[in-house]
Specification:
Length: 161
């Protein structure tokens, strides 16, 4: 059983009420390990998808992988005054369902910039690797066989098929 560590946040006043309540946000003690596991599982998921679509063109595969990486691995604070992080895509969905459309649009803009950066870097590295790859030159293994004089055919009228 894991214990939780309470984090005190700023007092919150609910709409239509004069009551000021103190929110209590809990953070698990092995927070770093949880993020490491989450990142590892994200890479595993991308590797499985990459394997399933391995015969597709690289640009399509990288588009899908970079979309998953940007959405799953972009951290953000889930609320004001909270020291922990959560994936930005989850925060964006929560903001959308809570009616905070401007925060949702800001999250989507951030995710778009992160995705575009990851996608562009991946494509640039792919193009660079393709340019730097030297063309394969087949070297003959047996130089005597390559240098041998071929036998020239002769025309012999005595044999008829």
């Amino acid at each position: 059983m894991t214990a939780t560590t309470p984090l005190q946040t700023a007092p919150v006043q609910t709409a239509g009420s004069n009551e000021v309540t103190q929110e209590l946000v809990t953070q698990i003690p092995n927070y770093g390990l949880t993020w490491a596991l989450y990142i590892g599982l994200t890479f595993l998921m991308v590797a499985i998808i990459w394997y399933l679509i391995r015969k597709w063109h690289f640009v399509i595969k990288w588009f899908m992988a970079s979309t998953i990486f940007a959405g799953a691995l972009t951290p953000a604070h889930p609320a004001e005054g909270v020291a922990s992080y959560s994936p930005l895509i989850l925060n964006a969905v929560v903001n959308l369902f809570d009616g905070y459309k401007t925060e949702f649009i800001d999250s989507i803009k951030t995710l778009s910039i992160v995705w575009a950066t990851i996608f562009a870097i991946g494509i640039a590295v792919w193009i660079l690797i393709k340019k730097l790859k030297s063309p394969k030159v087949e070297k003959p293994t047996n130089l005597d066989a390559v240098m041998a004089t071929p036998i020239e055919p002769t025309i012999d009228d005595s044999k008829k098929d």
